[in-house]
């Protein structure tokens, strides 16, 4: 059983270690003494310390050792820049980067890709050279969407992966616990820090029966989203089990896991089964299939495993669903959809049908979709709506080009876009409707928030299976139900579409298409990382300074924030995202959304050295130039929202020392610690009110010790100084981060 099986065909020295995983599980099992869910088995087999780790679902924080890291090109920039600042020669854990998010859809695949390569040249050059330097696999623009590439190449049953993109859970279709994280977490694992995750609860979804006709795997998750809503999966892993699971292809299961992100789930998983074996074989990984078979007993839930919540779905009774508009949990079965369109006044014409994306680009999806399009063509019909196809990977594109589905879509009137995210992430130069014009679009994607696809808040975006997208594009109407409604052929004769058919895997095997992978070279010493010093999109990061060993005195309060201060208030998105690889430029958005308690306004604070009011980043820069460190006072749950690491990097970059709040959102609190800042809370939250924005404070940094309060002396502008007690959650290791200037500095030191 103790074999050396490679994780994938690309990397020679990274192996799957089921033996070690199994040993870890034996330790945990002897401690917990109860049956485990499959999700738990994956996580606990990756514990940093299986003997000592506290394990209580929904309570403890697990320290884990993931097998892999994956980043998409937008989030990879800052992650790699940070990693570089640690000065390590290569990543400590297997890592890949995927160019998929920055390609705009305009006219079609080849041209769009060419244009993107020009526009984003400096970003791609940087990523390609940094990947070569630090031993990271690099998937060039045109290779496909991160989650498809992971499924086709890197996912394996029982593995644990973190990825800097919300739909990373896609790999759960192949039995991997794949979790979407922020860049800071990715950097930790690249630098060999254990990765922390609150022990998730486990929601079981038991599938029985078998799908038929127009029902597709997508309908399972559309139904689950309707039941659980966009918040229902928070803090939980969704585990699919039951006899119905065997009836689903691996790619169909991946679709379901992918869209689990829409219910807020940590991830979703399917236990190892024979369809996974078939998929592994079809994607050149027979050895993994065999190895997994020999460990099959560890790759599914234990008998009697208990779920925190259980949902049952009978696939034989499941109807096709359409979810939306504007939210992915508004689920309507197709039989009720026409009524719903009328009742809600949703635009009745279907303007654009879009299939593909990371969610639904499998060979099965494409074959089923093409079977419907073929049916229509045989009756002399094409798509009435505009019709768009985004293949999920070069491999899928090449395979459906060889097998004819692609030509069918083109004959049907479709435009085939580049193998990339395109319209799914708003990279869509849409011309057929004006901004503000109400219209309906239907896609096989996963997210349909307002404006996501085309930046038009009046676009009603619905998500469904690729089958329904194709069928309804023929009718061009949101009222059409292919299960019950007739169409008219070119001669005016009525007919009904036949239910779709398609193969889960290509009979002739996959065609890999063009070679789009760049392996790290053998000799990496001579590689130069390409960052132009004049670039406004990229900037090399210098390691932050270590703590000077002294208490800090007379610090001004940059801003006393009042009310909600989310990571969006601290580091806004939108146009700022262009600068996500340039810390100094993006720092011009620091805290510009936070409300100043002194005047109730955003982005207007007093510079205590001049008495003038100015923008928050401008005042911070002035303090920094004058060698003055500063603090921020925050309200409740400071830093809630997305895990954006820029929200912690920016205050550190502009000279902040401490963020003192009534309470923190945990991820942001940890991110601040990682960057060498002091996240502190008022031991008595009422003390927040005692602080005046004009006060100055002293921080007794030398007092920082595990579990001990921290003293802050407050010097009011007029009035007597007083003392306040602050609390913190630093542990021993994190105190080292503060002392060394950051977690990365600490890792770099340990590696030297
Ligand atoms: Fe890309 Fe959309 Fe998936 S942005 S990763 S295709 S959800």
UniProtKB/TrEMBL annotation:
Gene3D superfamilies: Aconitase, Domain 2, Aconitase, domain 3, Aconitase, domain 4. Keywords: Iron, Iron-sulfur, Lyase, Metal-binding, Mitochondrion, Transit peptide, Tricarboxylic acid cycle. The keyword Metal-binding applies. It comes from Apodospora peruviana. Its cofactor is [4Fe-4S] cluster. Pfam families: Aconitase (PF00330), Aconitase_C (PF00694). Pathway: Carbohydrate metabolism; tricarboxylic acid cycle; isocitrate from oxaloacetate: step 2/2. Residues 556-684 form the Aconitase A/isopropylmalate dehydratase small subunit swivel domain. Residues 501-526 are annotated as: Disordered. Its main location: mitochondrion. This is Aconitate hydratase, mitochondrial. GO terms for cellular component: cytosol; mitochondrion. Binds 1 [4Fe-4S] cluster per subunit. NCBIfam families: aconitase_mito (TIGR01340), PRK07229.1 (NF005558).
């Amino acid at each position: 059983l103790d074999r050396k099986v490679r994780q994938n065909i690309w990397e020679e020295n990274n192996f799957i270690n089921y033996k070690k995983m199994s040993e870890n599980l034996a330790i945990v099992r002897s401690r917990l003494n109860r049956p485990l869910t499959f999700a738990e088995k994956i996580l606990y087999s990756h514990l940093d310390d299986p003997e000592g780790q506290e394990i209580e679902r929904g309570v403890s924080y697990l320290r884990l050792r993931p097998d892999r890291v994956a980043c998409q090109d937008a989030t990879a920039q800052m992650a790699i820049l940070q990693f570089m600042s640690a000065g390590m020669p290569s990543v400590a854990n297997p890592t890949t980067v995927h160019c998929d998010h920055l390609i705009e859809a305009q006219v079609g695949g080849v041209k769009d890709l060419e244009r993107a390569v020009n526009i984003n040249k400096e970003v791609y050059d940087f990523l390609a050279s940094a990947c070569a330097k630090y031993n990271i696999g690099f998937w060039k623009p045109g290779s496909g969407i991160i989650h498809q590439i992971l499924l086709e190449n890197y996912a394996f049953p029982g593995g644990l992966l973190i990825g800097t993109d919300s739909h990373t859970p896609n790999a759960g279709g192949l039995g991997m616990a794949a979790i979407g994280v922020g860049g800071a977490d990715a950097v930790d694992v690249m630098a060999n820090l254990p990765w922390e995750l609150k022990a998730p609860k486990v929601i079981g979804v038991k599938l029985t029966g078998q799908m038929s006709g127009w029902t597709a795997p997508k309908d399972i998750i559309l139904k689950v989203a309707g039941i659980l809503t966009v918040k229902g999966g928070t803090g939980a892993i969704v585990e699919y089990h039951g006899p119905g699971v065997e009836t689903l292809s691996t790619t169909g299961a991946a679709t379901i896991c992918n869209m689990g992100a829409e219910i807020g789930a940590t991830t979703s998983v399917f236990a190892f089964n024979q369809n996974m074996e078939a998929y592994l074989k079809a994607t050149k990984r027979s050895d993994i299939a065999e190895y997994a078979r020999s460990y099959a007993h560890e790759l599914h839930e234990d008998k009697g495993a208990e779920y925190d919540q259980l949902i049952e779905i009978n696939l034989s009774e499941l109807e096709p669903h359409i979810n939306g508009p504007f939210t992915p949990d508004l689920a309507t079965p197709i039989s009720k959809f026409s009524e719903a369109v009328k009742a809600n006044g949703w635009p009745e014409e279907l303007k654009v049908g879009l299939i593909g994306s990371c969610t639904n680009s499998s060979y099965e999806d494409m074959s089923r979709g093409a079977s419907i399009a073929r049916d229509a063509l045989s009756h002399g019909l094409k798509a009435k709506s505009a019709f768009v196809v985004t293949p999920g990977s070069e491999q899928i594109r090449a395979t459906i080009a060889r097998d004819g589905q692609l030509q069918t879509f083109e004959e049907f009137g479709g435009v085939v876009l580049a193998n990339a995210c395109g319209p799914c992430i708003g990279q869509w130069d849409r011309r057929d409707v004006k901004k503000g014009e109400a219209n309906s679009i239907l896609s096989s994607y996963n997210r349909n928030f307002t404006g996501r696809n085309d930046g038009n808040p009046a676009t009603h975006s619905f998500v469904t299976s690729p089958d329904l997208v194709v069928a309804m594009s023929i009718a061009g109407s949101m009222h059409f139900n292919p299960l019950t409604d007739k169409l008219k052929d070119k001669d005016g004769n009525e007919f009904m579409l036949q239910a779709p058919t398609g193969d889960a895997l290509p009979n002739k095997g996959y065609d890999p298409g063009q070679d789009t992978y760049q392996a790290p070279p053998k000799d990496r010493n001579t590689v130069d990382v390409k960052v132009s010093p004049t670039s406004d999109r990229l900037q090399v990061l210098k390691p932050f300074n270590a703590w000077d060993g002294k208490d800090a005195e007379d610090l001004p309060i940059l801003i006393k924030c009042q009310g909600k201060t989310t990571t969006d208030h601290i580091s806004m998105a939108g146009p700022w995202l262009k600068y996500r690889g340039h810390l100094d430029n993006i720092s011009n958005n620091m805290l510009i959304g936070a409300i100043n308690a002194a005047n109730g306004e955003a982005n207007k604070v007093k510079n205590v050295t001049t008495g003038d009011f100015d923008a928050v980043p401008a005042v911070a820069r002035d303090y920094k130039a004058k060698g003055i460190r500063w603090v921020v006072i925050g309200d409740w749950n400071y830093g809630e929202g997305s895990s954006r690491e820029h929200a912690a990097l920016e205050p550190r970059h502009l000279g902040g020392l401490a963020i003192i709040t009534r309470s923190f959102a945990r991820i942001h609190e940890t991110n601040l610690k990682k960057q060498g800042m002091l996240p502190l809370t008022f031991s008595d939250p009422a003390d927040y009110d005692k602080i005046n924005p004009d006060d100055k404070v002293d921080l007794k940094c030398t007092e920082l010790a595990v579990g001990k309060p921290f003293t802050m002396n407050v010097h009011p502008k007029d009035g007597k100084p007083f003392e306040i007690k602050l609390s913190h959650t630093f542990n021993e290791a994190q105190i080292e981060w503060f002392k060394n200037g950051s977690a990365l500095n600490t890792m770099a030191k340990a590696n030297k």
